[in-house]
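Re: weekly structure request thread

Next one in the queue (100 aa):
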Amino acid sequence: MIGLSHYLILSAILFSIGLVGILRRRNILMLLFATEIMLNATNIAFVAISDNYGDLTGQMFAFYIIAIAASEVAVGLGLLIVLYKRHGSLDLDDLASMRG
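Done, posted below.
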């Protein structure tokens, strides 16, 4: 039987993968993907704990996080398109260099 600890371990593994992706941050698109992985990890934890205690609060938080993540992706992809058209690259090292 799959218990709460299994879901929390899965959530911790996914969160760690997302954190490594954010810390490496070579590409802005990969940074957005890593953020989504971290948000989904917290959703898994919220829903698992909510189900364990028989309360719907965690599931409501997860639904709210999904809505925020969808708007973040929409705005982020729009900004990525503008950056790519302007600079021709999504590499953070290229974008961080100052131009005089």
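The chain has four helices and no strands. The helical segments are 4-24, 28-53, 57-87, 92-96.
Next request, please.
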